[in-house]
Amino acid sequence: MITAIVMVKAAVDRIPEVAAALAELDGVSEVYSVTGDTDLIALVRVRRHEQLADVIAGRLNKVDGVRETQTHIAFQAYSRHDLESTFDLGVEP
User: Which of 8, 31, 85, 92 could make a disulfide contact with 23, Cβ separation 3.0–4.6 Å?
Assistant: First the structure.
């Protein structure tokens, strides 16, 4: 599974509508409203790299109210759950 983290700047008066529209897109697993330089963070999960262009450039960027995006592709996922499971197995992380 390939995960992309997409920072989205949206029209201020449309943030809730943009978030809801993004969450409905195939390939978008989660959308968060956040503070800081970006308005929303969308997590995109696909099976093949080629699908990223379809989801992000083909659909996400075209949602009415999306002003700008910045995409980061994850290399490795780490979570407390994964690390705890490793310790339970007696394997060094």
Answer: 31
User: What's the confidence (pLDDT) of residue 81?
Assistant: 62
In this model, does residue 24 exceed pLDDT 90? yes
Between CA 48 and CA 93 the distance in angstroms is 27
Residue type, 86: T
What pTM was computed for the model? Answer: 0.83
Tell me how far apart the alpha carbons of residues 71 and 39 are, in angstroms, rounded to a whole number.
14
User: What does the H/E/C string look like for the chain?
Assistant: CEEEEEEEEECHHHHHHHHHHHHCCCCEEEEEECCCCCCEEEEEEECCHHHHHHHHHCCHHHCCCEEEEEEEECCCCCCHHHHHHHHHHCCCC
Averaged over 13-37, what is the pLDDT? 98
Structural domains present in the chain: 2-89 (3.30.70.920)
Rounded (5°) CA angle 36-41-44: 160
